[in-house]
Amino acid sequence: MGRTNPTYRDAVRRLEADWEPMRRALRREYQSDFDRLFDRARSVADAAGHANPRDPERALLLSILLAHETELRRLRAELESDAGTGERDPAPLTDE
To answer: Where are the residues of the annotated region Disordered (predicted)?
Structure first.
């Protein structure tokens, strides 16, 4: 990978460029959220590149999901620690 085949990082850059029209169409308040999705995907690019995916879009989506799961775990741990100190209402994370 790299010389003859594009790297996963190259594929992520290409996908981000492909989705740039959508980013421009988003309200300004959502554009940073859109950018953060690709930032999160790049944060695990080493592992995704090691998998050498045929379809980089699937690897991108899995990378974003992994980053979200990591953030959820961090937030749950923070809620649990705050609940132990009585700083916040320990309401569970749910989709309502």
So the answer is: 77-96
Report how far residue 53's alpha carbon sits from residue 55's, in angstroms, rounded to the nearest whole number.
Answer: 5
Instruction: List, as one string, the DSSP characters of 29-77.
Output: HHHHHHHHHHHHHHHTHHHHHHH--S-HHHHHHHHHHHHHHHHHHHHHH
**Residues with Cβ < 8 Å from 43, sequence gap 6 or more?**
63, 67
pLDDT, tens digit (0-9, with 9 covering 90-100), for 15-49: 999 999 999 999 999 999 999 999 998 988 888 88
Q: What is the per-residue pLDDT across 66-89, written as a single tens digit (0 to 9) for each?
A: 999 999 999 999 999 988 776 655
> From the CB of residue 85, how many other CB atoms can be counted at a distance below 10 Å?
7
> 10 with 18: CB under 8 angstroms?
no
Contacts of 26 (CB under 8 A, 6+ apart): 34
Q: Tell me which DSSP letter residue 19 carries.
A: T
CA 94 to chain centre: 20
